UniProtKB/TrEMBL annotation, chains A, B:
NAD(+) binds at residues 110-114, 134-135, 147, 156, 174-177. Residues 72-184 form the 3-dehydroquinate synthase N-terminal domain. It is an enzyme of class 4 (lyase). This is 3-dehydroquinate synthase. Belongs to the sugar phosphate cyclases superfamily. Dehydroquinate synthase family. GO terms for molecular function: 3-dehydroquinate synthase activity; metal ion binding; nucleotide binding. GO terms for cellular component: cytoplasm. PANTHER family: 3-DEHYDROQUINATE SYNTHASE, 3-DEHYDROQUINATE SYNTHASE, CHLOROPLASTIC. InterPro entries: Dehydroquinate_synthase (IPR050071), DHQ_synth_AroB (IPR016037), DHQ_synth_fam (IPR030963), DHQS/DOIS_N (IPR030960), DHQS_C (IPR056179). Binds 1 divalent metal cation per subunit. Can use either Co(2+) or Zn(2+). Transmembrane segments: none annotated. CDD domains: DHQS.
């Protein structure tokens, strides 16, 4: 029997699925898949980095269970969330003669999960898929909830689909080979769950951050709590017509900064979110909505985790305030011309504000550039 | 008040929508859209041919209603159902700053409807869209039911999404400028509805074909009956896990022939379906399932409508039987390696057969090549 430390059920009716969290689930993947999806074939999508570290483990497990599969290996990095990589994956799945009832396996971080999930959504008008997230970011955030997609030259995640996985297997051992910078970037999304509506979880993180980074039992517990949180939100609002937008805390600023740095290694997604969350708290303080000491506490915690928290922490030059504002305005969270932001009344008290004045944001960003 | 001859309601719960059929609905489109979608903006997708004949009519109507819109004009033809055209449309919609609540308008035939609907499905993870079909094929078939997509080099419609329109406006006057060959190709899909399960409709078509081609009241009635038929099937099986596959009568052979002729003017989609339906009837007769006189009656009716009915009717050389079989096997209607075909016990008695022996199909095709 596989060792499964935590099971989180995402109760989405006929699209319901389980998130399984355990120390070495890749070794168990063959048995789990053969049990849950008898007679199916599999198309693994991964990147070169993950292929080196994890693909042989998965292949060995699938072979042992007698499962039939093929693998598509892409270059690592955010640039892979492109139209051309999407076409490559779709054509690869078709060339492997995978049928509508077969499954795509997304083995990798957020980039691979988003790309492979989107390819599954549109190949033969919808194939099933399984998430096997290998980064902290993917395990706590992107592998759960069915948001899939690629980036447009005009902005991040502007092209995609809502397509729920049939199963998520989070193997904790894959995090052991993750570079610290990547782990910290994923940690920003962990912190986000506390900041949205769970101040107790934020406090718990303040007390347990070291153990989470060191790999003790708190790590698995943190991941399970994040998944449970996200599952609740997704169940309530699968296609983000309401409360799900809270999960975008820090993301409007973050996406603008990622775009400005060309989705490059200069700023990882989670790093953009870290700066974005600090900006969202600072902006809320500026508007008189939230106490300033909460903003400081957030910044201190993220800084202690090794994350950037200010515009000045981004290496190299960043674009003009006008450039950043244009990116903010192109973000998906714009409705009828007014800017929608996730603001906060303090730690664990985030809310959706649909009528933010672009001029006020402009002034705040202008000031933050020299902070 | 707009003159609406027929209204067909597609009762798909929260995805329900109306199909409106009338003599000059493009002139009424501004008023109808302003009434049903207040405050929204619109992105029109069309092709160069339709743009010349119909776009000014639509623009005048939208202007008169004070609606805001932009337009994307693509080259005409099946080659436009490509990855690159999809990217062009998505980027065009984003560049026009259309938001998630805005609507895409597909103004054109099946190619534009499939492409624009798919672009709507994936832009910002799903925009609403309106079908304004301007070909007979699109009015009776492709604009209804939410199948959207593009072609892969590996086969037709292999990439796409199920995405229902919010409204279908079928303006009968657009068919007056349609070349006869295009009209006839669409008529093949009209005949299909009779062949599936409505022998009375097939008889009615035998009696009314001339009036349908000439543009009398029978034309609107035929279109409304086809839409009502398709709506019933789509309501029962939205994502084609069962009976909806019956709508593919003639399409497995047809798609293989279209692929073989490079999705070119050598063989229009409806022409491929015409030959495919005759082959499906002939093959069913060969298997002892259907009376031979029904196959002859089908062929005679399609021939009288000016449609090709045999492989030899396709201009130029067609590929080897092996090439055609490979295309048949790549068709979406393949499950677990066995071939799925829509076969028939006679006119109006089609059924899904999931265990067709590829060898028998091979032998039949081989023989038909010299028929």
């Amino acid at each position: 029997m596989p060792q499964i430390d935590h099971t989180v059920h995402v109760a989405l009716g006929e699209r319901a699925y389980d998130i399984l969290i355990g120390p070495r689930l890749l070794e168990e993947a063959g048995a789990i898949l053969a049990d849950r999806f008898p007679g199916r074939r599999f198309g693994i999508v991964t990147d070169e980095t993950v292929a080196k570290a994890q693909l042989p483990r998965l292949q060995t497990a699938l072979d042992a269970a007698g499962l039939s599969y093929s693998a598509i290996v892409l270059p690592p990095g955010e640039a892979t969330k492109s139209y051309s990589a999407l076409e490559q994956v779709v054509e690869g799945l078709l060339a492997a003669r995978l049928e509508r009832g077969d499954l795509v396996i997304a083995l990798g971080g957020g980039v691979i999960g988003d790309l492979a999930g989107f390819a599954a959504a549109i190949t033969r008008r919808g194939m099933d898929f399984v998430q096997m997230p290998t980064s902290l970011l993917a395990q706590v955030d992107s592998s759960v909830g069915g948001k899939t997609g690629i980036n447009s030259p005009q902005g991040k995640n502007l092209v995609g689909a809502f397509h729920q996985p049939r199963l998520v297997l989070a193997d904790l051992s894959t995090l052991d080979t993750l570079p610290l910078r990547q782990f910290a970037a994923g940690y920003a999304e962990v912190v986000k769950y506390g900041l949205i509506d769970d101040p107790q979880f934020f406090e718990w993180l303040e007390a347990n951050r070291s153990e989470i980074f060191a790999g003790g039992p708190a790590r698995g517990e943190a991941i399970a709590r994040c998944c449970a949180h996200k599952a609740r939100v997704v169940i309530e609002d699968e296609t983000e017509t309401g409360v799900r937008a809270l999960l975008n805390l820090g993301h409007t600023f973050g996406h603008a900064l990622e775009k400005d740095t060309g989705y490059s290694d200069r700023l990882l997604h989670g790093e953009g979110v870290s700066i974005g969350m600090v900006l969202a708290h600072g902006f809320s303080t500026r508007l008189g909505l939230a106490p300033g000491q909460d903003a400081s506490r957030v910044e201190n915690h993220l800084k202690a985790a090794g994350l950037p928290t200010r515009l000045a922490d981004i290496p190299g030059e960043i674009g003009s305030t006008e450039t950043l504002m244009a990116a903010v305005a192109q973000d998906k969270k714009v409705q009828r011309g007014a800017l929608t932001f996730i603001l906060t009344r303090g730690i664990g008290q985030a809310f959706i504000e649909k009528n933010v004045d672009p001029q006020v944001v402009h002034g705040y960003l202008e000031e933050m550039r020299s902070a």
